[in-house]
Each structure stands twice: as C-alpha cells, then as structure tokens.
C-alpha cells in the first residue's frame, strides 16, 4: 500500500492479467480470504492515490493488473495501470464535462468507482452483469464510465414511483449477508454524496477528505477483514498478500526452505497507520509453520479406514478446490483420550442422569456424507440408524455403503458425543469427491420435509459461491433455516489459506472446524469461524 517498484521476478512470457479478466474467466480463484484482502488493499490504494494522476477518472477493474512470476504464481499484489501524458492535468475536455454532469451530485467520483470494484469483487461478477441481474439498463456514455445514478440504483435499489404501495425494488445490498455489515457500510459510505461535501455543499479540504476516506471506507474494510481472518496483520496486509497465490485460490507461496525454517506466528494489529503517517507500511510477521509446529498438530479424528483417505496435499489442483473436509489423517493422542473421558464423565453426570430411558422426541440429526458402514467396529455399540437414503446413486436408494470411511467416521463421532440422538444418513457422494449441488439440495429437502430433522451435518464445501447449482442449494438452505433446522458445514480443509467454504459461509449455517484436546481451534486442516 506504499509507492514502490515491482521487485519480484515477473514472467516476460505472459501478459498481465486484469482484475476484470479474473472475474470473467477465472472466478474460481476468488475465496473469502482473497476477496477481503483485495478489497482492503484497493481501498487503501484509493486513500493514497485519490486526486493524483495515477488514479484516472473512470478507473475500474480493467485497470487493476496482476503479474505472473517466473515460477508461474500470481501474487495477490494488484497494480494500477495508467497512461501518463504531459497533458494529464489538462484533460477537462467535453467528455470529462459530460461525466461531470453525470456525477454532479457526488463530489468524489473516484469513490463511486471504488464502490463498483468492491461490488465486483464480492459477487465475482462484472458490474454490467450485476446490473442485468437487477434488470437495470446502464446509461451509455462515451468513455465507458458508469453514472452515479446507475451505481446507486444497482446497490441500493429504487422505489417504484408508479406503485402506490410504496414497494421498493431491492438492490444488491439485500444480497450481501448481514454478517458482512462492514463491507455494506464501506460501499454505502462511498455512495453517500453528503459525506463528501461540507455544510455548504462544497468539496472537503485535502486533509479532511483524506481522514474521512480512512474513517468511512478504509476502516470498515479493515474490520471486514479482521472479522473474517483475525490472524492477518493489518499493518502488513499488503506484504502478507504477496505470499498468496491468487491463481491458486489463495494458497500460500512458501518454498520448502521457508516451510521448514522454523519461523511461525503472526503478530496481530488493531488498525493500519492513520492517514497522517508515512505511506509505506513496515510491520510484517512471517507466516510460515515450523516442522515442530506441524508435529504438534493433533487431529481429533482418529478413525483410519481400511482404504487410505485422500488428503488435500495429494489432490490435484482441480480436486482440491472442493471436496470433503476434515479428511486429514491424524493419530490418537493420550491428550485426546483424556479429554474424551472428561467429556463423557460430564455428560453422564449432568445430562444422561436426567434423560428418561425412553425419549418420545429425541433430537434428530441428518448427516450428508459418503454413506456409512454399519458393520464397522466403531458402530457396533450403537443402535440402528433411524433412516437411510442414497441420493448419490438413485438406483440404490436404501443402500448407503461407505467405500471411503469418511461418512462412517463422521457418523461415529456424532453418536459418540450425542448418544441420545437419532441419526439419519444420506449418501451424497463417494470417494471424497465434491457432491453435486442438486443432489445436496434434494438431500436437504428430504431431511427437512420427510424426516423432519433438527440438525443437518455437511462435511463438504465449495471454495466460493460461484458454482453450478448454487442458487438452488441456497434456496434449500434458506428453507431449512426458516423451519428452524440447525445446519453445520465444514469450514475448509486448508487452514488459514482459504476462507470459509460454501455452505459454511452462508449466514444460515454454522461453520464447523477442527479443535485440539484443549479446545483450541486447529490451525492446519480447517478454518473455524463462528457466524455472527
């Protein structure tokens, strides 16, 4: 977020990739982490470059470029592309005057451009596509800039003047989850024309404007990042981002030497430097895990199926983008055994003693996974499964054979820690592959409408919400939520390298993560975030 030259080995064999091209052609590269980090970096760029020749009128995602390195990585390091001419400061021709007329109700049009980019990043769609989704026809302009009235209408919606019922057409703001309130606030403030003028409707002074941009736009974007990824150092977010490979959905670009170098941990910061401080940012803690740290990670999942479980490290790039989570092999530790004994002791003393031997309406839990092996030794002590259905292979509706062991272990985990609940099993996938969204949609409908379950567990997810069948799946999740069904979904399988997967990122589901025996959230193999 400072002014500096490119100092990483750029590949001369490939052209720079614009943010607009990433959105149009490579939407799978956007994760919740990369979206939040990128939004903050671009917001800070506007803070530093506004009213300079580097930030040209009408700038947008086509002007933000990313370069590929000689090792075929694309650091999450955006660059502003602009053409500087000797007459840059004398560009108030007829076209610009035409733009001024379209922007006359907003004295800081560069913030309108920022609002557009923030919307494009969040929804991973071009602004023109977003406008078409709202059935809004954009005003055609000679230089391609988007009018303020169009931007405001797409985001905030508008009132139907011909409708006496005062019914409003909702804008994109209504599509952003409520727990993203700081992102909503940043975009709202960008589009609030009154914030960017004084009491006489004149432009703000340079220092006042700079401070207000920080307070009303950058700070909310900081909070948006912190609420999602509290371990990312704000004072060094730009340097931190350079170690993220944008082309590989946010994976860290650490060499083998770095991974085993013994460095670890990241210092936390509460806010970026105030606008009055130097532009360059200085603090950066190396975020690499030592061999010792990795050896201390213990998984609570002790089940080792006969067939070897595929781990994320052995998957191809395509496979690893979305699959069943929590499938990393772990070894039983004495600490975990002790913790489990303490848990069962508390359960027996405070819960089991007060539960009648026969419950009229026990809690019903549906698990959507790879099926179940009822003959497995782990399940011998448990009573019969209450319901089974195979949506993965409809020719075998009542057979939910588990060939990987993942679903079997997940079912055992539930029965171990909720022994008085009734378990229902739905097979939605096999071989640890990502299930079809339509299959999951039907499975949720069956669990809610036929079995009338209270809880649904899903150990899978997509890295972003941009996948075939998302809209139908979202509707089924909303339907289950409206019927007071609790839904738990796996957060991710890549620790802090990825944001919450979908449906864990849905405001109507809870994100489930890996914890150690001391109830500390696991830092490798999953990312946990409470919904708020």
Automatic annotation (TrEMBL):
Keyword terms: Hydrolase, Protease, Serine protease
SUPFAM superfamilies from the UniProt entry: Subtilisin-like (SSF52743)
Residue ranges of domain DUF7580 in the record: 12-226
Domain spans labelled Peptidase S8/S53: 363-507
InterPro entries (UniProt xref): DUF7580, Peptidase_S8/S53_dom, Peptidase_S8/S53_dom_sf, Peptidase_S8_Asp-AS, Peptidase_S8_subtilisin-like
Record GO biological process: proteolysis
Pfam families named in the record: DUF7580, Peptidase_S8
An MF annotation (GO) of this entry: serine-type endopeptidase activity
Protein family membership: Belongs to the peptidase S8 family.
Descriptive protein name: Pfs domain-containing protein
Natural source organism: Colletotrichum chrysophilum
Biological classification of the source: Eukaryota, Fungi, Dikarya, Ascomycota, Pezizomycotina
């Amino acid at each position: 977020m400072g002014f500096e030259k490119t100092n990483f080995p750029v590949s001369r064999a490939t052209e720079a990739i614009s943010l607009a091209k990433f959105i149009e052609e490579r939407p799978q590269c956007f994760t919740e982490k990369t979206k939040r980090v990128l939004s903050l970096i671009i917001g800070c760029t506007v803070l530093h470059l506004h009213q300079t020749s580097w930030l040209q009128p009408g700038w947008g995602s086509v002007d933000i470029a990313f370069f590929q390195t000689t090792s075929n990585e694309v650091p999450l390091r955006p660059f502003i592309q602009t053409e500087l001419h000797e007459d840059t400061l004398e560009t108030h021709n007829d076209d610009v005057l035409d733009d001024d007329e379209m922007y006359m109700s907003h004295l800081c049009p560069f913030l309108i451009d920022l609002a557009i980019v923030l919307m494009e990043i969040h929804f991973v769609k071009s602004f023109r596509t977003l406008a078409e989704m709202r059935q809004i026809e954009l005003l055609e302009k000679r230089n391609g800039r988007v009018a303020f009235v169009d931007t405001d209408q797409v985001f905030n919606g508008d009132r139907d003047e011909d409708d006496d019922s005062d019914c409003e057409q909702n804008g994109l703001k209504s599509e952003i989850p409520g727990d993203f309130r700081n992102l909503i606030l940043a975009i709202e403030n960008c589009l609030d024309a009154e914030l960017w003028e004084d009491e006489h409707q004149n432009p703000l002074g340079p220092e006042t404007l700079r401070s207000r941009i920080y307070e009303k736009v950058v700070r909310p974007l900081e909070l948006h990042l912190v609420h999602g990824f509290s371990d990312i150092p704000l004072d060094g977010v730009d340097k931190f981002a350079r170690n993220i490979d944008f082309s590989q959905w946010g994976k860290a670009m650490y060499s083998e030497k770095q991974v085993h170098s013994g460095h670890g941990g990241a210092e936390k910061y509460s806010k970026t430097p105030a606008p009055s401080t130097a532009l360059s940012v200085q603090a950066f803690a190396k975020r690499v895990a030592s061999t010792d740290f990795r050896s201390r990670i213990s998984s609570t999942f002790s089940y080792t199926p006969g067939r070897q479980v595929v781990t994320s490290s052995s998957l191809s790039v395509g496979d690893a983008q979305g699959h069943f989570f929590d499938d990393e092999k772990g070894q039983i530790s004495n600490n975990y055994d002790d913790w489990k004994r303490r848990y069962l002791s508390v359960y027996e003393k405070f819960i089991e003693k007060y539960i009648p031997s026969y419950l009229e309406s026990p809690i019903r839990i549906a698990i959507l996974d790879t099926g179940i092996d009822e003959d497995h030794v782990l399940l011998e002590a448990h009573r019969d499964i209450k319901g089974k259905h195979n949506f993965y292979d409809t020719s075998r509706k009542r057979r939910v054979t588990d060939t990987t062991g993942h679903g079997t272990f997940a079912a055992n985990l539930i029965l171990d820690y909720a022994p008085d609940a009734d378990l229902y099993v739905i097979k939605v996938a096999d071989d640890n592959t990502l299930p079809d969204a339509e299959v999951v949609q039907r499975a949720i409908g069956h669990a809610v409408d036929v079995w009338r379950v209270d809880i649904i567990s899903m150990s899978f997810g997509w890295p972003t919400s941009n996948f075939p069948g998302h809209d139908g799946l979202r509707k089924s999740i909303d339907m289950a939520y409206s019927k007071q069904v609790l839904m738990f979904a796996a957060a991710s399988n890549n620790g802090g390298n990825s944001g919450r997967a979908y449906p864990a990122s849905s405001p109507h589901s809870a994100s489930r993560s890996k914890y150690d025996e001391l109830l500390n959230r696991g830092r490798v193999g999953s990312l946990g975030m409470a919904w708020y």
